[in-house]
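Q: I'm writing up a methods section and want to include an example of the input and output format. Could you take the sequence below and give the corresponding predicted structure tokens, formatted cleanly so I can copy it straight into the document?
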Amino acid sequence: MNNRAQARSRLDTRLAPYRRLADEPRPHRGWIRAIRDALGMSSTELASRMGVSQQSIPALERSEQRETIKLESLQRAAHALGCDLVYVLVPRGSLDDTVRAQARRKAAQHLGRVEHHSRLEDQAVDYLGSVSQLDDLAARFVDRRGLWTEPPRSESQGSGPQGSGPPPAEE
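A: Here is the clean output for your methods example:
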């Protein structure tokens, strides 16, 4: 297992407890308002604890609802409410699965271009050979630079940027 694969594995382990929280809906009026109400804290009291005007609290709560709140503001509100702000990106699946799926998509794009040119030259590739080639190429794309680079949108632009071919074989 290489360094990136180990890093993905360690990070997946660290993120596992947060995965169940990713599906939890945010309160309708936002976390700030929900916690403030649960604590029985008025907007005037929250404003005083944050060192801002009372009028800024409804704006703060609206910005959270609209998902435009700044992290700094959310952190200050959390502190004033006696809370910790936990900021974490939670992958929808394992990081390794995400990388492997992207490598497979990238390999399929590359092989699609090759297959198209082969058909033009009347050199068809059989299905099992294609699957085998796809799996082999996808494995070579994992942990290579350019994995997340998208190909050009138009085929009329040529066969892609310099270095868009398959990665070199591992030694």
